[in-house]
Each structure stands twice: as structure tokens, then as C-alpha cells.
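Suppose a colleague, Dr. K., hands you the sequence of a protein chain of 261 amino acids and asks what its three-dimensional shape might be. Before reaching for any lab equipment, you can write down a predicted structure in C-alpha cell form. Begin with the sequence itself:
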Amino acid sequence: MKYIVVADKFDTAGRNILTQLLDLEKFDYSVSNGSILDSANLDLEKISKYDMVIFASKHKSETKEKTLSLHAPGNFREVWGGGKEGRLNHASALFQKYLFQKLNEEKEKSGLTRYNVTLECTHHGPLIDVPCVFIEVGGTEEEWKDKKATFVVAKAIREAILTYKPNPYNEIAFGIGGPHYCPAFNKLQLDSNVAIAHIIPKYVSPITEEMILQAFNQTIEEIDFAVIDWKGVGKAEDRDKIIEILEKNYIPYKKVSEIKR
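The predicted structure, expressed as C-alpha cells, is then:
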């Protein structure tokens, strides 16, 4: 696979991650002159020549939670910071699982205990034609300037790019339910055989057929099943509607609690 790392030169965290990554190893990269959430600011012609785009970015947290996070981009409903309404990017469940594992490993090695490593649900832009993933440092200016935190992210990117090989034994899934930060899916991504690409959170409810089909179709690997955060999708009737949509489209599903870890 050919990888490119993309950052906004005005984004403190993204710039620090990219600078430290290039100090570690020579990689292909692109620097935008504006928000990487908007495809108008990206060198799309250059990006189109790669198999995977890794967006290195800050994450802004209203609760000021210190995080190292990872997610696929896309908008289930209203556009949040770029992209298009109801459109998700192509995402790789296998690469996201591997990068998430490397991020956890590097965080543990560093002793960076004040940060939590977490998945986020699918959200925001840009919308591009190449599979992509966001890896971020959050949640305030203090964390974005934290060279130790951005170095951990840079090392995780480096290790993933240099050592990633698809695991043919992983089961491929997309997630349904739960909050923006994904505690149930974090455990699966880290400790089970399941690899997760897109995650549809509860807060975009009502979860529609189009959302489910986008998450299914925009995963580049063949989906084995959907994983449902059983208590994280709302009322029983909400869960019944989701199951009805899955069964209508012949998409198998499992509860989080049914996955072996």
C-alpha cells in the first residue's frame, strides 16, 4: 500500500505530528493551507495517487478530555466541519484496527497516562475518493502543543505504515450505537478478532437504512456483520427498527456482548 499523511499547517497538533513523523522517517505527505475537513483545501490530484490517506489533526473537546483518538470521516446527517450530508468516506476496518493497536502500544510505552486512547464515531469531512482515517490529539490548545502526545501519534503512524499487513483472520464489521467516544467498540477493536470501520452513534437517531448501507458499502473490506451496542441504540422500538433494516438487507448482526475477547 502507498500511504500519504496530510495535515493543516495552521493546526498545531497536526503540524507537530507531521514534523515529528518526518524526523523519524521519510514519508510522503501533503500540507494544506486551510482546514483538512474541507476537500477544497486538499491537493486532491496528489492524494488520488495513494491507497490510504492518514489525516493528522487536533481534536477539540468541549469537556477538555485528553485523548489520542482515531476515526473514519463522514457525515450521517448535517455536515459537521466539511464533507457532504449523508455521505461517508471509504474506510478500512483492517488498517484502522492495526493503527488503533499501534496507538495504544505507543501510548503505553510512553507512560502518557493522562491521555485516553479512544475510537470516535464516524463524523465530519472531508469527502474524498481515497480510503482515509483521522488520528488526532485532543482536546484543548494545551494538548495540541504537547510534543510528547504528538510524538506518540507520530510513532504509531510510523509503525503502522512500516509494518501493516492485512490480517485475513479478522472479522470485518461496522458499529451501531453508543456515544461519540466508543467504549464498547474500543474494547472490541483492541482485544477481539473483530475489525471495525465506520461507527454509527446513537445521537444521529433515528438511524436510517441509508446510514446503515453507507457504513456497509463504504467499508473497503467485505463486511461479515454489524456489531450493535445493544443498550446504546435507544429504546426497544429503535433497536427493532435497526434489526428490521439489517434483516431486510441480509446483513448479519451480533451484540457487543456476543463477541469473544
